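Data availability (excerpt). All sequences and predicted token strings are deposited with the supplementary files. A representative entry, 1886_t:CDS:1, is shown inline so that the format can be inspected without opening the archive.
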Amino acid sequence: MFVKSYKHNQENLQNLTQTAENVSFIIDFWSSRAKYEYLRITTTRVTANFEIKDVMLENKYIPSSHASRVITDEVYKYIEAWNLKYYIISISTNNESNMVVTFLLLNQKDEYDKIKHLLYTAHTFQLVIGKGLTPAEILVVLN
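Structure token line:
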């Protein structure tokens, strides 16, 4: 039953992504409470009625290191599996060096050179604000 449901939903997602002229990817890692790292790939598209549609394509546990080559291989595999190579216009990632290099490696593959790389602005703000508040926390604790 579970396999049948998965295949049905996979076909529906395949149809949904194939009806889009352009899609954008969001690639990031997140940690479970047990500290396991997962690679999440979400696709976003805008419909003809200007509705934003997000679909999480993959959410996979990555036991090995988060080296750029490992991430690139995983992302490439999913792009090919979902037949999205000709539809992706951009990939958004955080500013971590492994993600930046992942994009550069992916961009070197055939027909992937026109994909734009967008960095999370919010992630940068979070880091800057976090670092900026660190001295204030120390002052508050001392007073």
